[in-house]
Automatic annotation (TrEMBL):
Transmembrane segments: none annotated. InterPro entries: Pol/histidinol_Pase-like. This is TIGR00375 family protein. Gene3D superfamilies: Metal-dependent hydrolases.
Amino acid sequence: MLNQYFADLHIHVGMNESGKWVKIPTSRRLTVRGILQEAAERKGMDIVGIVDALSPLVLADIKRLTDEGLLVSVSGGGYLYKDSTLLVLGAEIETREPGGGLAHTLIFVPDIQTMSAFSSYMSQFIRNISLSSQNAHMPLKQLINIASSFNSLIVPAHVFTPHKSLYGVCCDRLAHILSDQEMNKLAAIELGLSADSDMADRISELSGYTFITNSDAHSLDKIAREYNVLAMSGLSFQELSWALARTEGRRIKGNYGLDPRLGKYHRTFCTGCGYIDTGGFTDHQCPECAGNSLVKGVFDRINQIADYPEPHHPPHRPCYFYQIPLEFIPGLGKISINKLLAEFKTEMNIVHYTSHAELVRVGGSKIADFIISARAGTATIAAGGGGIYGRLVKM
């Protein structure tokens, strides 16, 4: 029998419990312990992927939590937090292609021992293994061949963003930089906050891959701003592996992500004057200030490299559901969010299940109207670009 699980597989650690930074800039509250508490108890996640476990500082914290009994090793890989949420150990690693383009890739492994061995091996290529998302001074194909020997799941991260991504700055096609054998070793493709399945399925070589949607959280409140719903028979690394591979009946049932217009890099942005394009630049000059300091948006980049004018969804592709996290709701501050959480327990309940009448009772009519319109996909959105998030327009 298959069950339904919520999963956010891309969460960063800010610092370890001894106060040493792992990823700068992030939140000091973003420790392994803090992530597990937030993801399990406030966000309602069943699976979390911490992607800085390559750092010995993070591994030491995870080991400490296993010694305390807060994390328990699971048959099939992974660690169970308070009998409810699976922790999957991951690493985000930066690679450089011969043309100079940088990209991030997620590597997930089943246990502390495997990650420790992988970390030790990668330390010969990475100058400061204790910090997050460090450059491995190698192309992606070399990282794939190394990581695949460690019983890993390999997932290119936020593949369309204009900074440090494969399609954003490295290539027009994965086949231009990877062999068929190397492409077959990829477990999934992470879309990123400014893209969705409709956009990605305009590129033919992606049709065979499972898409995943994750938060890439750099603070606790960003956890679960994007996530996946998985069909699995239980919580383990092996079950996750089967779900990504769509075997044994396991699969991704749904991708839940921001409306791409809310992403920081959805549309092309002029760094000279701050203009965000909503029509489509026809040349390399800003129509507002005539400057050429442009950051190409994901929407415009996909239009440039797409095989199809419209998406061609393969039969295995699940629905992509737009969801708007509470942090994007105008007028909804931390005090109001805490009131809602105290009443309805998790953000998943508030965003997806709580009725309008119940929301009005606790949060008031304006906040309730925004949450319901966001749930229904009828909210008005001003598109983001150039590192600035999109926003909901007040009703």
